[in-house]
Specification:
Layout (H helix, E strand, L loop, with lengths): L1 H26 L2 E8 L6 H20 L7 E8 L4 H13 L4 E3 L3 H14 L3 E2 L16 E3 L2 H15 L7 E6 L3 H4 L2 H9 L5 E7 L7 H9 L4 E5 L2 H13 L14 E4 L6 H7 L7 E4 L9 H12 L4 H5 L1 H22 L6 H9 L24 E3 L3 E6 L2 E4 L7 H6 L1
Parallel strand pairs: 1-2, 1-3, 3-4, 5-11, 6-7, 6-8, 8-9, 9-10
Antiparallel strand pairs: 10-12, 12-13
Helix pairs in contact: 2-13, 3-4, 5-7, 9-10, 13-14
């Protein structure tokens, strides 16, 4: 009897072990990715909705089994916009065997390009600085660079200016590599024939009164200001211009200034900060706004509702931005799996470089396809112009690509 009991226990144990192995097999693989960004501190107004977009889409991937039985694991850490903290976070993430990395700031991306190359890990930053791609092979930009955006806006100014002579333009820049990124490329475009007169380049400070700068613009005959910075200083400038009666009510209005901006210098949050002073502000990005109806915007609003986000987050282009970078990473994983490859840093890098031509990726969160290759790691090439009207940014015309960027590359 005792022998029978022992035999029964051994059979039972082996059955339990078999069940354990089967459950493990059915559970599939887990693919760790990571993000370090400024949820607090400078630019947290951008980083907070961005992190929520990343978090929500990762949940969605797992909840909807977009990778089959495999799972996405996402590590998100606040770095307060401090490069040294970002670097420490990245080193910790490496211990988690991450296969894909999402970085944030221009400063940290520039400082860590060599680290990404050394680790051979595909990296998508929130920074669209073209310089991120220099002396690097593993950094990819999600959308058109700041340079492409600023040059594209300058082209729009030149093409639509109705006054006599060259339109007089000023650049309003963040005092950092992030802000200065388009400066030289705008100058190169002018040298290549872009018909604008670049009157002044201003790197703003923390001054809450832009009166002296705006009056100087007026004395120099500035008709257009293109901003490459974040929303708060743009809001301060617009409020100042409104109090001085300088804002053009129609594009290129004589004796007034028409204000324009690149991705982080505009969007729905700018209207919240600037109020009526943001009216008639022109802004460009490669992301779709929630004011443009379609399957992509419907899906984003549904995603935000599903995971309990408020209206402000749901409408933010930076929530869209966070969603989109995870979409790209997951698409690379899906393609690798479809080809029977193991999902690794190497296979994901191969799939990123192959996203072009017929293999371009259409995420529906952007106004054009995501395309990458060995010679082009700048993602969505097209831009959409938006204009603030009645407190909402609306599409203006069709998506476009900068012609002069092609000439100066």
């Amino acid at each position: 009897m005792k022998n029978k009991q022992v035999t029964f226990m051994l059979v039972g144990l082996s059955f339990v072990l078999m069940l354990g192995f089967s459950a493990q097999a059915l559970a599939g693989e887990t693919y760790p990715i990571a993000l370090s960004l400024a949820i607090t501190g400078p630019t947290s107004d951008v980083g907070s909705p961005y992190s929520k977009g990343v978090e929500d889409y990762c949940k969605y991937v797992n909840d909807e089994k977009l990778l089959g039985d495999d799972k996405l694991e996402c590590f998100i850490r606040d770095d307060g916009y401090k490069t040294e903290v970002t670097k420490r976070n990245f080193e910790d993430f490496l211990d988690e065997k991450i296969v894909f990395y999402l970085n944030y700031s221009t400063g940290s991306t520039m400082a860590m390009r060599k680290d990404f190359d050394e680790e051979k890990i595909p990296t998508l930053p929130a920074s669209f600085h073209a310089g991120n791609l220099v002396d690097s092979t593993y950094v990819f930009l999600p959308i058109s660079s700041y340079s492409s955006q600023a040059v594209g806006l300058a082209e729009y100014v030149a093409a639509n200016h109705k006054g006599s002579g060259k339109p007089k333009v000023a650049l309003f820049l963040h005092p950092s590599a992030f802000g200065r990124a388009p400066r030289d490329d705008v100058k190169k475009a002018i040298a290549a024939g872009l018909n604008i007169d670049l009157v002044e380049i201003v790197e703003h400070g923390k001054d809450l009164d832009n009166t002296a700068m705006l009056q100087r613009f007026k004395s120099k005959g500035v008709q257009y200001v293109i901003s490459q910075t974040v929303q708060p200083p743009v809001a301060t400038m617009l409020k100042g211009a409104q109090s001085l009666g300088m804002i053009a009510k129609t594009y290129g209005e004589a004796g007034k200034i028409t204000f324009l901006g690149c991705h982080y210098a505009g969007g729905p949050d700018l209207i919240g900060l600037a109020g009526s002073a943001a009216e008639n502000y022109y802004w460009t990005t490669s992301y779709k706004l929630m004011t443009a109806p379609g399957p992509g915007t419907d899906a984003q609003l549904a995603l935000a509702k599903r995971y309990g986000r408020d209206e402000k987050v749901a409408q933010s282009q930076n929530y869209t931005n966070g969603i989109m970078v995870v979409q790209v990473a997951v698409e690379a994983m899906r393609r690798a799996k479809t080809k029977g490859k193991k999902v690794t840093r190497a296979s994901l890098y191969e799939e990123m470089l192959a996203m072009n031509g017929y293999n371009a990726f259409y995420p529906l969160t952007t106004v054009g396809p995501v395309t990458f290759s060995k010679t082009d790691r700048e993602g969505v090439d097209t831009l959409q112009l938006y204009m603030a009207k009645d407190g909402v940014f609306h599409e203006l015309g069709l998506p476009f690509a900068s012609e002069y960027v092609k000439k100066i590359k």
